[in-house]
């Protein structure tokens, strides 16, 4: 990249080409070419080398003394988390007091906390389901859905655990045992309840 910049600068200085011509030929803006020329005049060939884009300073970065105090406190009490460490630093008069998230990041950088253990949601959940369809239904009553006449209704829903098929969906005025049993009977397709009548 430095060689391409050097060729562009030479084309302007030695060959006498205009900045617009060289900029369009190289594929950069005129402002970029002007900055290359200024850097070449000020620093020579070294001025055309790629530079780091990292900021010179970060005003909200935790001071080194505070980070050292935080890490020392963590070594002394390895079971304390970022919240307790920040509390203890404030109690001891360390200024500026870091935020809990800043303390957490400092502990991760120092390999004193494993970042994979913090988020409980990232744990591997074992998904289970029944082996065959119609072995288990998952039933739920949700509500109250407002109706046009001003009343509200509850929805009884049922899905098969294996196939995830909706086996039952019915609106009820109230969640009563009779209404739920009627909906299940309709979903199962059972016309009567079978019994042995004592024999």
Task: Please explain how this structure is put together.
The protein is an alpha+beta fold and 199 residues long. The chain has 3 domains: 2-48; 64-116; 137-188, no CATH class. The chain has helices at 2-13, 19-26, 30-43, 64-76, 82-91, 100-109, 177-188, and strands spanning 137-146, 152-160, 166-172. The protein has a 3-stranded antiparallel β-sheet. The longest helix has 14 residues, at 30-43. It is elongated, with a radius of gyration of 36 Å. It starts with a helix and ends in an 11-residue tail after the last helix. The model has no long low-confidence stretch (mean pLDDT 87).
Observed structural traits:
single chain, 199 residues, 3 domains, 3-stranded antiparallel beta sheet, 40% helix, nucleic acid binding, Transposase, WH-like_DNA-bd_sf, RNaseH_sf, RNaseH-like_sf
What secondary-structure arrangement, pairings included, does this model have?
Elements (H helix, E strand, L loop, with lengths): L1 H12 L5 H8 L3 H14 L20 H13 L5 H10 L8 H10 L27 E10 L5 E9 L5 E7 L4 H12 L11
Antiparallel strand pairs: 1-2, 2-3
Helix pairs in contact: 1-2, 1-3, 2-3, 5-6
Organism: Mycolicibacterium moriokaense
Pfam family, one: HTH_32
Protein name: Transposase
């Amino acid at each position: 990249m430095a060689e391409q910049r050097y060729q562009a600068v030479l084309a302007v200085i030695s060959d006498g080409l205009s900045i617009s011509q060289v900029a369009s030929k190289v594929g950069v803006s005129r402002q970029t070419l002007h900055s290359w020329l200024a850097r070449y005049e000020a620093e020579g060939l070294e001025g055309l080398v790629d530079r780091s884009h990292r900021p010179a300073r970060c005003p909200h970065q935790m001071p080194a003394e505070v980070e050292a105090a935080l890490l020392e406190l963590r070594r002394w009490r390895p079971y304390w988390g970022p919240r307790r460490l920040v509390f203890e630093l404030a109690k001891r008069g360390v200024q500026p007091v870091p935020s809990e998230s800043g303390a957490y990041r400092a502990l991760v950088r120092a390999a004193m906390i494993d970042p994979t253990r913090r988020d409980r949601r990232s744990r591997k959940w074992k998904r289970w389901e029944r082996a065959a369809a119609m072995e288990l239904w998952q039933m739920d009553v949700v509500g109250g859905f407002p109706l046009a006449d001003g009343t509200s209704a509850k929805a009884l829903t049922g899905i098969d655990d294996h196939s995830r098929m909706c086996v039952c969906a019915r609106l009820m005025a109230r969640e009563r045992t009779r209404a739920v049993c009627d909906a299940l009977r309709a979903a199962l397709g059972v016309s009567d309840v079978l019994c042995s009548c004592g024999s």
